[in-house]
Amino acid sequence: MLPEGALNNFFFPDNVHIEWSLMIVLYPYITGLVAGAFVVSALYHVFKVKEFETLSRFALVASFCFGLFAAVPLLVHLGHPERAFNIFFTTHTTSAMSIFGYVYASYMVLVMIELWLVYRTFFIEKAKSTRGWQQLVWKVLTLGVTETTPAALRVDHGLIGLLAGIGIPWAFVLHGYVGFIFGSVKANAWWATPLQPIIFLMSAIVSGIAMLMLMYSFIRWRSKLPYDFAAMRRLMDYLWGLLILDVTFESLEIVYMFYEHGHHWAVVAPLLKGPLFGSYAIGQLLILSGLPLLLLGYLSLFHAGERRFLKLANFASLCVVLQVLFMRYNVVVGGQMISKSDRGYVDFHFEWFVKEGLVVALIILAAPFVTYFVISRILPIFSDDAVSTSGSGRY
Amino acid sequence: MEQPTCTGRRTFLQDLAMGAAVLAAGGPVAILSSSRSRAATAVPDTKSKEYAFVVDVDKCIGCGYCVEACAKENKVPLGYVRTWVERYVAAGEGVHIDAIDRPGEILEPPPAELTQNAKWAHFVPKLCNHCENAPCVQVCPVGATFNAPGGFVLVDPEHCVGCGYCIQACPYGVRFLNPERHIADKCTWCYHRVSHGLQPACVTVCPTGARQFGDRDDPTDPVGQVYQSDNWQVLKPEMHTQSRVLYLGLPREVV
Q: Which of these, A128, B26, B42, B66, is most buried using a 10 Å CB contact count?
């Protein structure tokens, strides 16, 4: 509790720097996209949401692309990236962060095995139909397993379902635990809440769904292929419901702090009224949560025409991906603005051309999309895309 | 035969000459080098002791020698400090706070309107609390920050990955990322000095004894006497870190 009459003018001398800046904003953002995209894939495989059949492979590939770059911001941030593997070699089990290496690595292995099972028959066919170095690459990708009997495919199908089933809680662990890293820091009043893991998890899922919607719409528009409106409408139904939960938890944290009126509110209230007013109150809550909640509610409750649906659904999805990006910024950077003196707020300035600046952040953020583009030129992702139709048409 | 309790004339003259030399040589650094040669004869076994640090707020005069000595002894990078001294001036309308947070810094007097209405004023030195239940130790993902025998919390420079989680976890804001070595940095209680039988640099140069360092389990040690008096305070007790920096006369307003 701030002492009576204390002035808000002093911060500790070593608190003048925001140590965790844009890279640590990106890290939970990209990890969230990984988890969210995987959930859509698993909704089809595990929960048999039939509408998502056309999206499930796309969602899995997208999740993989985001996953490849989830740890890159951390590596850029580390003072000694060459020691990154110490997290495996000298694991300190009392640290929430130390478990990240294992959770992330095992999750990526799971996604890669599932992808291999999904594309196994394609690899085999390509290994048969190509020659030279290409054939060698495809052969390596088959891992020497060339059986495609109906019985073998049934086993594949069962394994894919099993991995998706394991993958859902694992994706939840991957991202819920990112929230735990922040929520368990008792020294930071803006972070320290048991709601943090669930807030991170919910925002991860909505950001993943919204990003898939944007990517799907863009890809289908660019390739001039028909949209699967049934899948898109169902996707927006899910997005609305989960966004309601997400915003409820985010609001609950503030309402609880406000009503409790303890130490946390004493230092958080000036933060929200001051440095975070624009990005939190106006940005994250009012505009980027309010608008998509209304629009998605309209799309879910009323049957909008296709053109209108496309416009509104994409606008709402854009708002949601930005909302989650703002949320990551408000949590990560906002929390560090509070000096440990409890009496001062540190400034944060965006910089373009520094190691952890905007240019590097934009490159890392673009990398999963570039990777997806490359993969989509090699692997069939939709059953009617160029790679699928150039082969036997079975994919 | 008992040692004489009063200072002999020869000893007094020696000390006087030493004092003059110290002042002529320029403050804390000279005191440090003289104490180094004097105290290095008795090397303690740091593992068998339970060290603690006492800060007597009433004795601190805000000279800032400690800040300067620490920076020089530990080669603290410019713009960062391992220890600093806060100045509190309580006036009618609230508490004015600033700090000596640069080597050699001398604070300007507070504004006249503040001092005219001042109810009290204090200097409060701050440093790493070397917590027994240290949040920084708990969160370090690679175990580079650790509780060393004797009560020190140290950073292994060969293993620290520079993730900064410890900086976030420390409730006292005493850690920073060293911009030259790219690892977590903080006060070590001058472990390199203590392990050679010396006192921490800041303790050595403190002219009033506001900073004391010793074995809290030794009843003959001034620090042990403070510890066993059970009349000390710690910063942010609600954090339950079991701090080993014990404050005497800590004003309520200090966070």
A: B66
Q: How far apart are CA A91 and CA A98, in angstroms?
A: 6
pLDDT digits (tens, 9 = 90+) for A212-260: 999 999 999 999 999 999 999 999 999 999 999 999 999 999 999 999 9
Of A86, A94, A342, the CB nearest to B255: A342
Q: Cβ separation of A5 and B159 shorter than 8 Å?
A: no
Chain A residues closer than 8 Å to B95 by CB: 3, 5-7
Phi, psi of A47 (to 5 degrees): -95, 5
Q: In whole angstroms, what is the distance from residue A8 CA to residue B255 CA?
A: 12
Q: Which residues of B16-38 are buried (b: 16+ CB within 10 A; e: fewer)?
A: eeeeeebeeeebbbbbbebbbee
Residue of B137, B143, B171 with shortest CB distance to A340: B171
DSSP β-ladder status, B153-155 and B245-248: unpaired
State whether A97 and B163 contact (CB < 8 Å).
yes
Structural tokens at position A352 = 């373009």
- Residue B157 φ/ψ, nearest 5 degrees: -70, -20
pLDDT tens-place string over residues A38-60? 999 999 989 999 999 999 999 99
Partner-chain residue, chosen from A12, A86, A187, that has the shortest CB–CB distance to B159: A86
Q: Report the distance separating Cα A137 and Cα B126, nearest Å.
A: 62
DSSP labels, B108-144: PPPPHHHHHT-SEEEEEEE-----TT-HHHHH-TTS-
- Residue B84's SS3 state is strand
A52 near A231, Cβ under 8 Å? yes
For helices B9-25 and B28-39, what crossing angle results, to 10°? 140
Q: Roughly what angle, to the nearest 10 degrees, separates helices A150-183 and A22-45? A: 140
Given a contact cutoff of 8 angstroms between Cβ atoms, the answer to whether A253 and A202 are in contact is: no
Q: Quick one: how far is CA B35 from the chain centroid?
A: 17
pTM of the model: 0.90
SS3 at position A366: helix
Rounded CA-CA distance B195/A237 in Å is 66
CB contacts < 8 Å between A and B, how many?
A: 139
Whole-number Å distance between alpha carbons of B56 and B248: 5
- Kindly report the backbone phi and psi dihedral angles of residue A85, in degrees, each rounded to the nearest multiple of 5, phi listed first: -75, -5
Q: Minimal Cα distance from A339: which residue of B?
A: B173
Beta bridge partners of B85: B100, B125
Burial of A1-26, coded b for 16+ CB within 10 Å and e otherwise, reads ebeeebebebbbbbbbbbbbbbbbbb
For residues A38 and A63, the answer to whether their CB atoms sit within 8 Å is: yes
CA distance A64 to A379: 13
For B243, residues 6+ apart whose C-beta sits below 8 A from its C-beta are B129, B130, B131, B132, B234, B235
Alpha carbon B52 to its chain centroid, in Å, reads: 10
Phi/psi region, residue A393 (left: phi>0; alpha: psi -120 to 50; beta: rest), is: left
A contacts of B160 (beta carbons < 8 Å) = 79-80, 83
pLDDT tens per residue, chain B (255 residues)?
Answer: 333 333 344 443 444 444 444 444 455 555 554 444 444 445 567 778 999 999 999 999 999 999 999 999 999 999 999 999 999 999 877 788 999 999 999 999 888 888 888 999 999 999 999 999 999 999 999 999 999 999 999 999 999 999 999 999 999 999 999 999 999 999 999 999 999 999 999 999 999 999 999 999 999 999 999 999 999 999 999 999 999 999 999 999 899
